[in-house]
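Continuing the batch. This is chain 6 of the set; chains 1 through 5 are on the previous pages. Same settings as before, nothing changed between runs. Recording input and output for traceability.
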Amino acid sequence: MSSFRSIYTKEKIFPVSVSTVTITAIVSSVSIGSQSGAPCTSYTTINDPTRNVAQTGLYGTCDRGSLFNASNGGSWIRFVGTGGTTIPLTSPGMNHCGGFLAGWYNGTLPTTVGTVVNGSVCFEINLSSCDLSIPVSVINCGGFYVYFLLSLNVCSARYCTT
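Output for chain 6:
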């Protein structure tokens, strides 16, 4: 929003432009769980608004490395917060969720508490919405889902949330 105010001196009146700038901070947090117990109690929590399907553009991040426990073949992950709590069930398209390749869940979520189902997370690269597919597991923890997610080998690919 811009407005003009005047500065008065003895000789002249000078218009001065005054602008208001709003800055929005995106705050993300991660809490690493033990990964050694039952999935509904031993998971890593990710609160990351940039993962939301509504976010467009790249943030220079990718889902590989220690967060997804690359050395042990994956981690149980629970998404929380304003970014979303579940992986979307349809492709958001490329350049969403803070990555070039946006991951979405291709499968059926479990409806029974304590049940684990296997599916895949797909990534759209060209014209198909599932050019790249990564196997995942999902457990219904009664009110929330926890996903067993692998570290991704492709940089600028991220698991999206909704």
